[in-house]
Amino acid sequence: METHLATILDEISRRYRFCLDVIEQLAGYQKQQAVYPMEIVLKADSSPVSIIDINTERQFRTLLQRDFATDSVQGEELGATELSDFNWVIDPIDGTRKFIRGIPTWGISIALEYQSKVVVAAIAVPSTGDVWSAIYQGGAFKNGERIKVSTISDIKESYITTSARKYFLEIDQQMCYDNIHAHSLHDPGFLDVYSFAMLCDGRIDGIVSCQDNWWDIAAATLILTEAGGSYSFSSHHDRPNDGVNYFTNGKIHRKVASIIKDITK
């Protein structure tokens, strides 16, 4: 058993190094290709996608096939392969709407699951050159330096950002949106994966979102918990549904939960 565990940990470490190398390559590619105006198409759900989204995911899959050919992958743009013990989850551009307008807060999100548990994660914001990462039970890092969530414990002093109000309206949870804003000090604006990165390194204190896809937040869940934070899904399972989800520094988690549960119950 110990030999098997040591082998698995070694395999996870190898993939963590791969993840860091690859996400930096992909970030460099995106920064180079970010030329405006940009041609886009609309997907079935009316969300935009650019050729850079698709090419980024293709590059990731090519590199994965080279180094870890038996691993599976689930991507936002190109779907899922047959599931294996090691499964990668990638959002090649989180924040495509901002990317196509030249707003420099889009990012790349990559997570690795081992038997459905996230064990490796990385987020890159190409415009800043920063990379946030984590390995299960090994801590969270920004550019190789250990990070921790904020120490704010009073929700009235907290910076909490939310998804756009229209998404709460679509699921009849506008009161949740309004009450979170009424209780917190400031909303710095939702910046997709960059907001999750800022939560992990302590610059903001909470995020309340809804209608999340797993590829949007898989990496963030590990980085956040390794940095000392907490998250909860309205699904009450280990994957989100179309409901309200919340992510915090842990210190305000119970208060955020009480606000949400009072409204959504």
List the helices and strands and how they pair.
Elements: H1 2-33, E1 40-42, E2 48-50, H2 51-67, E3 72-75, E4 79-80, E5 86-94, H3 96-101, E6 107-114, E7 117-125, E8 130-135, E9 140-142, E10 145-146, E11 160-162, H4 165-170, H5 174-183, H6 193-200, E12 206-210, H7 214-226, E13 230-232, E14 244-248, H8 253-264
Parallel strand pairs: 3-5, 11-12
Antiparallel strand pairs: 1-2, 3-4, 5-6, 6-7, 7-8, 8-9, 9-10, 12-14, 13-14
Helix pairs in contact: 1-2, 5-8, 6-7
InterPro entries: Inositol_monoP_metal-BS, Inositol_monophosphatase-like, Inositol_monophosphatase_CS
GO molecular function: inositol monophosphate 1-phosphatase activity; metal ion binding
Organism: Winslowiella iniecta
Give an overview of the whole structure.
Helix 6 packs parallel to helix 7 (214-226). This protein is an alpha+beta fold and 265 residues long. The strands form three sheets. Strands 4-3-5-6-7-8-9-10 form an eight-stranded mixed β-sheet, sandwiched between helices. A four-stranded mixed β-sheet has the order 11-12-14-13, sandwiched between helices. The protein has a two-stranded antiparallel ribbon with strand order 1-2. It has helices at residues 2-33, 51-67, 96-101, 165-170, 174-183, 193-200, 214-226, 253-264; strands at 40-42, 48-50, 72-75, 79-80, 86-94, 107-114, 117-125, 130-135, 140-142, 145-146, 160-162, 206-210, 230-232, 244-248. The chain has two domains: 2-146, 2-Layer Sandwich (Fructose-1,6-Bisphosphatase, Chain A, domain 1), CATH 3.30.540.10; 155-264, D-Maltodextrin-Binding Protein, domain 2, CATH 3.40.190. It has eight helices and 14 strands. It is globular and about 50 Å long.
